[in-house]
Design brief:
The protein is globular, with a radius of gyration of 26 Å. The strands form three sheets. Strands 5-4-3-6-7-8-9 form a seven-stranded parallel β-sheet. The protein has a six-stranded parallel β-sheet with strand order 12-11-10-13-14-15, with helices on both faces. The chain is built from 15 helices and 15 strands. It has two domains: 254 residues, Glycogen Phosphorylase B (Rossmann fold); 190 residues, Glycogen Phosphorylase B (Rossmann fold, 3-Layer(aba) Sandwich). By secondary structure, it is an alpha/beta fold.
Length: 517
């Protein structure tokens, strides 16, 4: 690939130590690697996949490295990671489990990420020795074919990357920067110390920016988490660029990591606007979901912090004036509360007023969001970090009722139903207020409800599209790649070398003293 630089600009002037490749339009083309712990089907994984696809569409070479990924048509992973759209490599997953007897998940997650990191660094190191006579026949070329993400060999080499995008866990950031000499963009979905499973569920309904009440259990947890939290703050600060998924998360980040004195950049997640707002025909076996009854839809995981009960209670109040109304509560059950034996897979014989749809498929989700009888989405979590479901609803032309806290305050625009800019309603988590909001939406004329839906579509296209995500991620990656000062000249790297040197010197002197005796 030839290097073409913008007119009247030399590469040394723009990106001093790095020789970036440019396309014919003068845009930089980067080699970008995503380092993600376990590539499943959660919201963080959806963001990583969307960002990778968006960057790839903008002409960059993108590869994903993960500790866990399921291949095959029935794998619990996103289609783009299974159908060849993205190059996914699964490595570093055989040494450490995901948990120990259901506990110590964060410790195991950090160890698994470090295993992934060292496997990645080893493959990168092999590239630098691949031309040596003894290594040339041993090392697989970077273009060595593979059939699945699990088809990885310790003999494979990796060509250098311009930027690494790390998310969720920051423990590997210093190693990737100092040992691999890589520029790092860290995407902080939310500080991990506020996501601990041991945190009481009731706290999830309170503002995470506020101090937590004192409790003995909380103090014990604090002692256990203290070194882990200190590690998270220190390693997060080593990234070249730090991104967050919302202004709300940015505020939590600043309060949680006050010692870093850094302001993260907001890069919103996205949805594929072209995949929503179209007529969807029911898949075989899903016809029973269709109904002419006016329908409210709630999509969330079934866990306490999602506050599904708020939507159910508000629906019960609103139904007093709208007898024909029905509610579909869809999502994935919490394995700790439900057993597979207790979940029925048989459709109901008579249409229920409230339907709990567990393990909703993607085709069922598309059908419910696009069906003409669906009138609005109820999004009940308080202080949600971002919340992708309201975007999916707005992209489908549905008004949204959401809590007036967290990420939804940045996605759902509420200027009153009389305002042409409104895309939904934001209310405090109070069932009476929500019931009134439901009634207000139901009493809108079909034309006005459609106008609210169209405004939602436009808002998603303007601010939360895949193209916008790609643009913002590209800017962050280019900013990181263009940092002029080499990593080896940074103060932190010098301190590391001094620490290692002093340690080796002291160790050598100790061994020599023992042998001398």
């Amino acid at each position: 690939m030839s290097e073409v630089f913008p007119p009247d600009v030399t590469p040394e002037k723009v990106y001093p130590p790095i020789s970036l490749t440019y396309n014919s339009d003068g845009q930089p083309q980067l080699r970008i690697a995503f380092i993600h712990p376990d590539l499943g089907i959660g919201g963080a994984e959806r963001l990583v996949v969307d960002a990778a696809v968006a960057l790839q569409k903008r002409g960059h070479h993108v590869e994903l490295f993960t500790s866990f990924h399921e291949d095959g048509p029935n794998g619990r992973s996103f289609e783009e990671t299974r159908n060849g759209t993205l190059q996914v490599h699964r490595l570093g997953d055989w040494l450490f489990p995901q948990s120990i007897a259901g506990r110590f998940t964060i410790v195991c997650a950090i160890l698994r990420q470090l295993h992934l990191t060292f496997s990645f660094l080893l493959a990168s190191l092999l590239y630098h020795f691949s031309d040596l006579p003894l290594f040339s026949s041993f090392v697989y070329p970077a273009s060595h074919p593979f059939t699945s993400s699990a088809d990885w060999s310790s003999r494979r080499q990796l060509l250098p990357f311009d930027v690494l995008v790390v998310d969720q866990l920051s423990a590997s950031v210093p190693l990737l920067r100092w040992l691999g000499q890589n520029r790092i963009v860290f995407y902080c979905h939310f500080p991990d110390l506020l996501l601990s499973p041991s945190r009481p569920a009731s706290h999830a309904l309170n503002d995470p920016r506020a101090p937590r009440p004192w409790s003995l259990k909380g103090q014990i947890r604090t002692l256990y988490r203290r070194p882990i939290d200190a590690l998270e703050e220190t390693t997060t600060g080593e990234a070249d660029k730090i991104l967050v998924n919302s202004e709300f998360t940015g505020q939590v980040f600043e309060r949680t990591f006050s010692g870093l004195m850094r302001l993260p950049r907001v890069v919103y997640p996205s949805v594929d606007v072209h995949a929503y707002g179209k007529e969807v025909k029911p898949a075989k076996g899903d016809e029973w979901l269709m109904s002419d009854q006016p329908t409210l839809l709630s999509i969330n995981r079934f866990e306490a912090k999602k506050d599904v009960a708020l939507g159910v209670a508000a629906f019960a109040r609103a139904q007093n004036d709208h007898k024909n109304l029905r509610l579909i509560v869809a999502g994935e059950p919490d394995a700790s509360l439900y057993s597979a034996a207790s979940i029925s897979s048989t459709p109901p014989t008579t249409p229920p007023q409230i339907l709990f749809l567990l393990n909703m498929t993607s085709s069922q989700k598309s059908l419910l969001l696009s069906h003409p009888s669906t009138l609005a989405l109820l999004y009940t979590p308080s202080f949600e970090h971002f919340g992708i479901v309201p975007l999916e609803a707005m992209a489908s032309g549905l008004p949204v009722i959401a809590t007036n806290s967290g990420g939804p305050t940045e996605t759902v625009l509420d200027d009153g139903l009389a305002s042409p800019a409104t895309t939904g309603l934001l209310r405090s988590p109070n069932e009476k207020l929500w019931a009134e909001a439901i009634k207000d939406l139901l009493e809108l004329s079909p034309e006005r409800r459609k106008e609210v839906g169209e405004q939602g579509k436009q808002r998603v296209r303007d601010r939360f599209s895949e193209e916008k995500l790609g643009e913002e991620m590209e800017k962050a990656c280019c900013d990181a790649a263009s940092i002029g000062k080499p990593i080896m000249l940074e103060t932190g790297f010098s301190k590391l070398l001094a620490f290692v040197g002093i340690g080796l010197f002291v160790g050598t002197c100790g061994v020599a003293a023992v042998l001398w005796r």
